[in-house]
Amino acid sequence: MTRFFSGIILFLASFLAHAVEEQAAFQPPPSDPTAMIVFAVVFFGGIGATAWFMWRNERKRKQRENEEK
Predict the structure, then answer these.
(1) What letter would DSSP give residue 26?
(2) To the nearest 10°, the Cα dihedral for 22, 25, 26, 28?
(3) Is the pLDDT of residue 36 over 60?
(4) Position 22 pLDDT exceeds 80
(5) Cα angle for residues 13, 16, 19 (degrees, 5° grid)
(6) How far is it, in rounded angstroms, from Cα 52 to Cα 50?
(7) Is residue 14 helix, strand or coil?
(8) How far apart are CA 14 and CA 66, in angstroms?
């Protein structure tokens, strides 16, 4: 039984050794910041547009309330 468990441990350790070799060989491609820039412009542009629409509609609502009085 001890021999069986030591064999399993060595077998699993060999997987770790192969995983380390594969990880060291992997080189990610150089990244292009264009996608991040486009995302940032669209994201913050959407936030700005939402804030502007809310501000504009609130102003119109206050003008309508003042006209009704």
Answers:
(1) -
(2) 170
(3) yes
(4) no
(5) 155
(6) 5
(7) helix
(8) 79
